[in-house]
């Protein structure tokens, strides 16, 4: 049996919990921009440990670093919508890591594929 799917794009943005844009948490600014632009949805995931370009360890095990835990924002939508969002986010992304990945949506809500 072949499962019907819809081609889509997965945008992942890796940032620190303490990163900000225009006085608000960066993860919040990204999610609100995605919502404003009508993307299908966004999820913010908080990691218990990680390191980035500086190789500085961020972990819940070291109290003084626990305020800057790694975050991943995942957004899935059509390639066109994700690319428009990425262009709008560019000025606020700073030292983040951003990845794009082609995905196949199996289910989105009760209706199946993306709207």
Automatic annotation (TrEMBL):
Protein name as annotated: DUF190 domain-containing protein
Pfam families xref list: DUF190
Gene3D superfamilies for the chain: 3.30.70.120
InterPro entries assigned to the protein according to its UniProt record, in alphabetical order: N-reg_PII-like_a/b, N-reg_PII/ATP_PRibTrfase_C, UPF0166
Superkingdom of the source species: Bacteria
Annotated family: Belongs to the UPF0166 family.
């Amino acid at each position: 049996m072949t499962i019907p799917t819809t081609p889509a794009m997965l945008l992942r943005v890796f940032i620190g919990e303490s990163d900000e844009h225009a006085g608000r948490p960066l993860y919040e600014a990204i999610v609100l921009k995605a919502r404003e632009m009508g993307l299908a949805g966004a999820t913010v995931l908080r990691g218990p440990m990680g390191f980035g370009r500086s190789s500085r360890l961020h972990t819940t095990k070291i109290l003084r670093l626990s305020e800057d835990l790694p975050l991943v924002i995942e957004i899935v939508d059509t390639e066109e919508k994700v690319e428009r969002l990425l262009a709008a986010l560019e000025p606020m992304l700073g030292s983040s890591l951003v990845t794009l990945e082609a995905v196949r949506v199996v289910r989105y809500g009760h209706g199946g594929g993306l709207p």
